[in-house]
Write a structure and sequence with these properties.
alpha+beta
Length: 394
Amino acid sequence: MKRATLFFFLFVIGGISLTFSQNVNVTDYQVAVSRATVFRFNGNWNWSQVGDSVSSNNALGTLSYKTFYSSLPLAWFLNVDASGGKNFSQYNNDVNVDASFLKYFSETKNFFGAAELAARHVGSFYLKPFRWVKNSSFTHIESAITVGFGYGRYINATALAKAVRIEGHLLRDNVIKGNLPKETMIAIANIIDRQQEYQEVYQTTYETFWFDDIEKEIQKSGLIDEFGGVGAIGFQRMRQVLFNINERVNDRYYGWLTSAGIKIPTSTKDTLRVGSPETSLNGKYSFPISWDTQINFKIVITSPLDSLYFKKYTVSANLDFIYELSNRINFLAKYTFDYEKQPGLVIKPLHTLDASFGYYVENNIYVTINSRFLKKGSNPQELTTSVGLSYNIL
């Protein structure tokens, strides 16, 4: 046990020492302000005839409305996706509405409130003279409201980790003359974080505008090479990092957060009784040891808000350890604990330990090793291992 602890300690310290000099830390990242509104409609109609008989007469239309505002003290989202169509005299529809809101009560305080509404309706009808006739697939609206509150700040800094990875490539390829200033790194990360905004506004051409704005921030630093731009190799490295091509940037978080919420089902898709509200308690904590190493912890406890409150409940906890030996070598370990309590039943806790190792060498070799250890109550332990190898001969 002592040897294992020592090995783990040296493993982490080794990861820290391999990190090249940076002007920015994980905890320097501040969430970008991002907003967009998109309203689109698509439709088509198909009609064909064989002889005197109509063989097809159908139509389909889709409508999408999305608007969001995202920042650290305030975030709200509204998504409406609807589709409807006909096939001869049968009509159908599928409508989804999802709205959410999160607000910190103060930019300097850690208390926040949140709410979400989710609703869906799926229906099918037959059109007969002067009336609609519902068929057996008709359903009512299914909806639920979730409200909650919490305390803490839990920041997703993955965009900054990607900016650091891009900077490392540009340094090794001699595209820039030195480490970019902290302000530049955060500005680039904010642009990366706004990927959804670029996608919604520019659709299939968004990469051009996205990459161009990143390049402009690099140019402002004055560290760009003599050609004045990142060039083809720079854009290739950006795509490689941002789309996980030949390498992977693991998620990066920092901070902690606790929250409690109630999910209230308000209607169901059939005529059965609406279920009981469900309460949930959540906790998150992440500690970025270095740009190469991170620890994440998450726990969720749920229980119905009725006579079985905390007589029936579920507990799920995850502990992750991430170590990036290099851009192309990753080690991930994850421990999961799951337990469910129900009156009159003896349910055994489930322990799961997963470990994976990935090694990629340009376009030639990709090796993956995955192992899982599983233990449920007093049942015999289970151990599985898989090894994958991909090699391009030519």
